[in-house]
Amino acid sequence: MRWIAKEAQILMRDFIIATPRCNVWADMGMAKTSSALTALDILWLAGSQFWPALVIAPKRVARDTWGDETEKWDHLQHLRVSKILGTPEERVSACLAQADVYTTNYENIPWLVEFFGGQKRWPFKIIIADESRKLQGFRIVHGGIRAAALSKIAKITGRWVNLTGTPAPEGETDLWGPNWFI
Predict the structure, then answer these.
(1) At what angle do helices 7-18 and 32-45 cross, to 10 degrees?
(2) What pTM was computed for the model?
(3) Residue 134 CB partners (closer than 8 Å, separation 6+)
(4) N or C terminus: which one in the chain shows less Cβ crowding within 10 Å?
(5) In this protein, which residues make up the domain named SNF2 N-terminal (predicted)?
């Protein structure tokens, strides 16, 4: 299917391309996923060194949405997606597969960081945190396990994009965790 970007999608795409570490806050159904994938594709075509990409998302979104979007849109069908989900053996296999975009769920982050030895062999040059409000539990001290694992590799990751439609569902203090990664 041919992707015809609307004004909001063009703004999201261009903002992601121009801003290495950013938040994209847009309502559900505003095509954040396809806009982010299109931005990745343009960066890749322009010769960006920020590859491969890791998408962290809720399990269903990591399993279905990102791969479905690359299959759905003509201009994204060349992107290879590997889903780092399932048993430890399945996750290892997915990590070793040749792909442009790897997807995983938030619960697998501590395992993934440990698998790659933290900063030593971390291969991902761009991270997209889909539903980034899941990072709101991050604190320097007494924070969540997933966010603490991500904090080990955040500064060596060249690009970071937080995507969400609900940046602060219970107040402004919910913004601190996701914004630390920016």
Answers:
(1) 50
(2) 0.94
(3) 56, 58, 106, 146
(4) N
(5) 27-177
